[in-house]
Specification:
293 residues; alpha/beta; Rossmann fold; seven-stranded parallel β-sheet; two-stranded parallel ribbon; 32% helix; 19% strand; globular; binds NADP nicotinamide-adenine-dinucleotide phosphate
């Protein structure tokens, strides 16, 4: 049994915590508001960016997962949640003379600026052009330059139960398929994000970097068409009004790159939801459509 700290125990962190509790580990879930953590995860109230709240971290921790997510999407919010938070956590561990075996950090594929459908893997150049990608990359480097072994998992867009913005937008006819260049998107179901972190923790010697995306870098329009078919709604053409006739349906313009998951798969991880189809099928089964309230 290991003692595990999940720093920023939210959507993915809680799912991971539940898996690790079921495995028999002792799991601490750290966040600013730890009131409603799943059963079995021991709450730790702290703010990763406020060192005075980190003085009484649980001791003797074997593995740390840094899964905090920014609660504000501006530059300051990003810096606070990632770079400051990681720096302060590493500082607190040093002050407490704590030496966990490894820290895993859930970074993002936003560190890659490739936009023309290029294939991307762990060897590809990460040269972000946004503060989001910049701050993620700086946080990765801070972790990997430290004394505690680190592993970075660059996750694609996370979706799953409760993360249904795209489903709602399709159901309401708010989003149209693009008629231009293909736009490739990369995603991972929440349970695979949690599952692959659990898997990596079990490896003898995890690599320092993995891409955490499913098997299909899906073309955005194909995802929208599949969702519309599955929901039995018509996908508007670009320029059409949405279902309420209020606004033209938006064409989503995500950055276009195709991320590979070979390293993760070769390490032995088997995806529960290999593509968006299986993953959204699971989400839709437990889903209340907007008109259902
Ligand atoms: N969402 C995506 O599509 C996506 C894509 C790529 C990578 N990622 C990364 O994947 C990870 C997991 O994502 P997620 O969706 O599970 O995140 P999330 O639920 O949005 O956030 C995780 C938790 O972090 C806590 N937190 C934020 N700032 C904190 C701080 N200063 N101190 C302590 N706790 C703090 C929040 O709880 P409190 O408010 O209670 O503190 C929140 O519950 C994140 O690192 C995210 O950046 C996400």
């Amino acid at each position: 049994m290991a003692r595990v700290l999940i720093a920023g125990c939210g959507y993915v962190g809680s799912a991971l915590g539940e898996l690790l509790v079921a495995d028999g580990h002792e799991v601490f879930g750290l966040r600013r508001n730890p009131e409603n953590l799943p059963a079995g995860i021991k709450p730790v109230r702290a703010d990763l960016s406020l060192p005075e709240t980190l003085v009484s971290l649980p001791t003797g921790i074997d593995t740390i997962f840094y899964t905090a997510g920014a609660s504000r999407s501006d530059e300051e919010g990003y810096r606070y949640a990632y770079l400051d938070g990681m720096g302060r956590l590493l500082g607190a561990l040093a002050d407490l003379a704590e030496k966990p075996k490894r820290i895993f950090f859930t970074s993002s594929t936003s560190v890659y600026d490739q936009r023309r459908g290029e294939w991307v893997d762990e060897e590809s150049k990460a040269a972000p052009s946004s503060y989001r990608g910049d701050i993620m990359l700086m946080t990765e480097r801070l972790l990997l330059a430290g004394e505690i072994p680190g592993t970075v998992v660059r996750l694609g867009g996370i979706y799953g139960p409760g993360r249904d913005r795209l489903l709602r937008a399709v159901a309401r006819g708010e989003v149209a398929a693009s008629d231009g260049e293909p736009h490739y998107t990369n995603r991972i179901h929440r349970d695979d994000a949690a599952g692959c972190l659990r898997h990596l923790m079990q490896l003898e010697a995890p690599a320092s970097l993995y891409l955490g995306v499913d098997h299909e870098a899906a073309e955005e329009s194909a995802v929208l068409r599949w969702l519309a078919d599955r929901l039995g709604v018509k996908l508007p053409e670009p320029g059409d009004a949405d279902r309420e006739g209020e606004a033209p349906a938006r064409v989503r313009r995500a950055g276009s790159k195709r991320c590979r998951n070979d390293r993760l798969v070769e390490s032995g991880y088997r995806f529960q939801y290999p593509t968006f189809r299986e993953g959204y099928e699971m989400v839709i089964r437990g889903w209340a459509r907007p008109e259902d309230g």
